[in-house]
Design brief:
The complex is a heterodimer of chains A (about 120) and B (about 110).
Chain A (H helix, E strand, L loop, with lengths): L2 E5 L2 E4 L5 E8 L5 E7 L5 E9 L2 E4 L6 E6 L2 E6 L8 E8 L3 H5 L4 E2 L3 E5 L1
Parallel strand pairs in A: 2-11
Antiparallel strand pairs in A: 1-3, 3-8, 4-5, 4-9, 5-6, 7-8, 9-10, 9-11
Chain B lengths: L3 E2 L5 E4 L4 E7 L4 E9 L6 E6 L3 E5 L2 E6 L4 E6 L8 E9 L6 E3 L3 E6 L1
Parallel strand pairs in B: 2-11
Antiparallel strand pairs in B: 1-3, 3-8, 4-5, 4-9, 6-7, 7-8, 9-10, 9-11
Classes of the chains: A mainly beta (about 120), B mainly beta (about 110).
Chain lengths: ~120, ~110
């Protein structure tokens, strides 16, 4: 069965420090991968998505970047964190493309709660 | 107009009652519809998905889809206090990347 791992679970970082969050998926190949942010009491905001190695699309211009160095690895980074980067970061994956992909749900990791001081 | 709209709630129901959660969407090209449950401080977990008009039942949960009215709902029968959570409606359309668009969620409170 497929599993998604995300770490760390919680992170406290000072303003201006760098960030690296990692997500890996097991049990499937060539997944579509996503990074979301959920601010306190708010909805899910799609940040980045990837359909393959090295292929990254950004939904919202911001202080963050993403990379996909391997098929099942997705990394969210920042060179200098802002206070506004605080939130709950979620990685998700889905399988399939075309009509089959249309019916595939997204499955979420456990998330990383990021606090910026 | 938001692409996916949900009443933020809270929706309060007594234990054992039926909870009805509603969601409307704006894009008629939407093809697939998903319901997620999110407990406070946790990540969303998939409850159900539906593609065709009508009802789909899974245990205590029933998803209802009406594409003509652009309306999807989730019924929870015999509600339990453990069902207290935020329920997210998500919609996928067959354009480009097939992005999943989420509503902001409805908070459900089931009182013992």
């Amino acid at each position: 069965s497929q599993t998604i791992h995300q770490w760390p679970a919680t992170l406290v970082q000072p303003v201006g420090s760098p960030l690296s969050l990692e997500c890996t998926v097991e049990g499937t190949s060539n997944p579509n991968l996503y990074w979301y942010r959920q601010a306190a009491g708010r909805g899910l905001q799609l940040l980045f998505y990837s359909v393959g190695i090295g292929q990254i699309s950004s939904e919202v211009p911001q202080n963050l970047s993403a990379s996909r160095p391997q098929d099942r690895q997705f990394i969210l980074s920042s060179k200098k964190l802002l206070l506004s980067d605080s939130g709950f970061y979620l990685c998700a994956w889905t399988a399939g493309t075309g009509n089959r992909g249309l019916r595939q749900p997204q499955h979420f990791g456990d998330g990383t709660r990021l606090s910026i001081l | 107009q938001k692409e996916v709209e949900q009443n933020s709630g809270p929706l309060s129901v007594p234990e054992g009652a039926i909870a009805s959660l509603n969601c409307t969407y704006s894009d008629r090209g939407s093809q697939s519809f998903f319901w997620y449950r999110q407990y406070s401080g946790k990540s969303p977990e998939l409850i159900m998905f539906i593609y065709s008009n009508g009802d789909k039942e899974d245990g205590r949960f029933t998803a209802q889809l009406n594409k003509a009215s652009q309306y999807v709902s989730l019924l929870i029968r015999d509600s339990q206090p453990s069902d207290s959570a935020t329920y997210l409606c998500a919609v996928k359309k067959n354009t480009g990347f097939q992005k999943l668009v989420f509503g902001t969620g409805t908070r459900l409170l089931v009182s013992p």
